[in-house]
Amino acid sequence: MRMGDFFTSQKTEPPVLTPLGLVLMLLALFIVIYSASRFYKQKSFQRIFQGLQIVQLVLLYGWYMATQAPLTESLPFYHCRIAMFAVLLLPRRTSYKQYFALLGVFGPICALLHPIFDPYPLPHITLFSYLVGHLALLGNSIVYLMNEYDYKILSNRRIIEITFGMNAVIFLVNQLTGGDYGFLKNPPLVGDYGMLGNFLLVSTVLVVALCGFSLLFKRLKEAQENRIFLLKDWRE
Q1: H or E stretch including 27?
Q2: I want to staple 86 with a disulfide (CB 3.0 to 4.6 A). Which of 32, 35, 61, 100 is the partner?
Q3: How many whole angstroms separate alpha carbon 48 and alpha carbon 170?
Q4: What is the DSSP letter of 79?
Q5: How confident is the model over 102-120, as pLDDT tens digits?
Q6: Dist. CA 191–CA 187, nearest whole Å
Q7: What distance in Å separates the CA atoms of residue 154 and residue 175, rounded to the nearest whole number?
Q8: What CA–CA distances, in Å, run from 196 to 18, 167, 171, 191, 199?
């Protein structure tokens, strides 16, 4: 493999995922979920995911700038890309960071169960970014939520407000650039229901999913606190 092939700007066809490739991707998904929920308190473990995310974002956006990629695909307005920056950069224990961490769990799971690759030959920076970026986002999000989750700062109503507000901004960006950020023009699997229909469909799916994940992490946090309380009581 030549380094030029990895960074080429010549489009071809999206790579076809083989059965072995799918199995390996699902195995990586399982390993990240298990390890992040198991070792979330270890600082060295946290830095691994943070470092991978930083490397992935620097390489991807460095490539976009070097190749002068069009605004239809190079802006950070895909849901997972917004979450990547938010989980890395936003202050701890804020409603926005917690929201995007929940999105950073749901989004990568969907992306890896139903991958949509860019039309470049293997191996390529966009494929590296897709796989490593989503896995790092998933790990960072789980680690953050296991350590910091607080259901009091992110109500279901707030999830609805942020989701529809975010998608309204993405919708406007799509109108200005002609892009398909957030898949608001062509939602995967379900087809095209028109601009308003797609906006409502994608927003509703996100709201339902994130409210469900919020409840899940609330239950995990409660179980975590109960174990700590019982252990403390037993020691006393």
Answers
A1: helix 19-38
A2: 100
A3: 30
A4: H
A5: 999 999 999 999 999 999 9
A6: 6
A7: 30
A8: 36, 11, 10, 13, 5
